[in-house]
Amino acid sequence: MKKEDFLFEPSINTRDDVYELISWWKKDKVRNAKVMVIGAGALGNEVLKNLALLNIGNILIVDYDTIEFSNLSRSLLFRENDANNNALKCSIAAERVKDLNPEVKVMSLNADINNGIGLGVFRRMDAIIGCLDNRLARLSINRACYKLRKPWIDGAIENLAGQSTVYVPGKSCYECDLTEREKKMIRRAQACMNVANRSIVRGRIPTTPISASIIGAIQAQEALKIIHNYDEKSKEAYFETLKSKIFRYEGKTIDIGVYELEDIKEDCDSHYYYDEIIEANELSHNTTVGELIEWAQKTFNESEPEIPLQQQFIYELIQDKSENRISVRLPESKVREYIETNNLRTDFNEEVYLKGYHYLTIDFPFKELTLKEVGIAPLEIILIEIEGAKKYVELTGDSNYLNFK
Amino acid sequence: MAKKKYRVRIVHTGKEFTMSLDPSTQGLQIVKALLNNTKLNLVKTDTEGNPIEYKLSSKQKGKDISTNTLSELGITDGDVLLLHQKIIAGYLVV
Ligand SMILES: [Zn+2]
After folding, report:
1. Which residues of B touch A44 (CB under 8 A)?
2. A353 contacts A320 by C-beta, under 8 angstroms
3. Which of A39, A254, B45, B51 has its CA 20 to 30 A from that of A204?
4. How many domains does chain B fold into?
5. How many angstroms does the Cα of residue A65 sit away from the middle of ligand 1?
6. What's the complex ipTM?
7. Using an 8 Å Cβ cutoff, are A90 and A104 in contact?
8. Rounded to the nearest whole angstrom, what is the distance from the C-alpha of residue A268 to the centroid of ligand 1?
9. Is residue B34 part of a domain?
C-alpha cells in the first residue's frame, strides 16, 4: 500500500478550512456573527483572543479605561509601551485582535456601559459577553439584555477561582440572584459614580492569568454555542450550555462544578421587556430634543409625550459651603469630570448638589440641544410615554454608527 | 421535622464535615450559620474590605440553593452541600 492511500491531508489555506473539519461548524454563522465584549481587562483579553482565533466575524470591544502597568501581567494583548502611552484598552485590544487575525472585523467603543451604549447596539448583537469587575455594570447589562430578551454571558475571576453564567431573560436573572446587601452596595455605587471618584466602583482584586484563561475560554465557547444556537431546540446538533447555570472553578482545591441557578423572582426591576420596537430612520442622536418631541407628537397623535431619561440632565450645580450656583448643560455622567476639571470641590468635605431634569417634555427648556448633548447614546431605544401606552423608539438613523473594520 | 445529616464542603479551603440540619432550612440560613461558626473562620471581606457573599449548592442535585429549603429541592440525607464564594471581579487586576 502506498502512503497516499491511507494518509488524508486536507488542503488548509484559510482559518475557515481548519474549522470546517469540525462537523457541526457553520462557517457562515461564525463569519456573520456580531459579538460584543464589555470590559477589556484580564478576562476581556482572554475572551478577545479566543474570539479572534475562532474567526468570529465582527467583534465589538467596549471599555472606558486606559492601560496601566499593573494590567500587563494578565493581559496578553497589551505591551509595556501601551502602559507608557496611557493608551485606551479598547483601541489597543482592537488593534491586537486584528493583528492576531486580520480576517475578523473589529470595532472599539470608549464608553461606559452604564450609559454610553444604546440598546440598539445590544439588539444587533448575536452574543454579549460581560468581562467586568463590578456589580453595577453587570446590572446595567442584565437590564439591557432583559429588555431585548437577549442572553448574556457573565464571567468573574478572583485569585485562583472563577465562575461563568449565561443569563436568559425570563428564565434566569443577575438581579434576582443578588442579595439585599449586594443591592444596597449597588445603590451606593450608583450614587457615588457620577460625582465621586470612579475607584469607588472599581474592584482591585488580585487574580492570576490562569483563572482569566479558564473563565475567558468558557465564556468564548458559550458565545460560539449561542451563535450556532445548538441548544435544546436545535435538531442539527445538541450542546449542553450554561444557560441559567453557573460554572464554578476553584483552583486551590481543584473543585469544578456546574449548578442550576434558582428560579427568577416575581418582583424584580430587571424584568421588563421592550417588545414591538419602532425603527425610526429619521431620528438619530444628532436630532434635537425639540425635533424628537415634535416627531412623537405627530407620530403618536399625542400633545404631551413624556420621555424619561436614563440619566438625569443637569442644568445647575450648587456648592454647599458657598451656595454658589453654576449653570451647566450636562448629562449626569459628565458631572464628575466637570467638577474635577473646574476644581469645584475646594476641600474633601465640600458637597456639590445637582439640579436636573428626569424627563424630556414639552416644558423642557433646552429644546435646541441634541439627544447626544442630553446624554442619550447613539442607537438608543427611547421609551416614549403617551397616554395609556409606552412606545419603544429606536434611533435607527444611527445605523451607520456600528462600523466594523 | 427531624434533623438530617448532610456533608458540608467549604470549596475554597477543601474542609469537609457533617452538619445536622432541619430539612425545612433555607440555603440562606445555612450560609449564615456557617459564617457565624467561628471554628470555620471563613473570610468575610475581600482585600478591599468589601463583604464577600457566599452561595450554597447541592452537589447531587447540581443546584444552587438560597431562598429554597433543603426539602423543597429534594436534598436528602448524605447529600453534599457546597459553600462557594461569590466572585465579582474580573476586569482590573492589580
Ligand atoms: Zn430578576
Report:
1. 91
2. yes
3. A254
4. 1
5. 29
6. 0.89
7. no
8. 5
9. yes
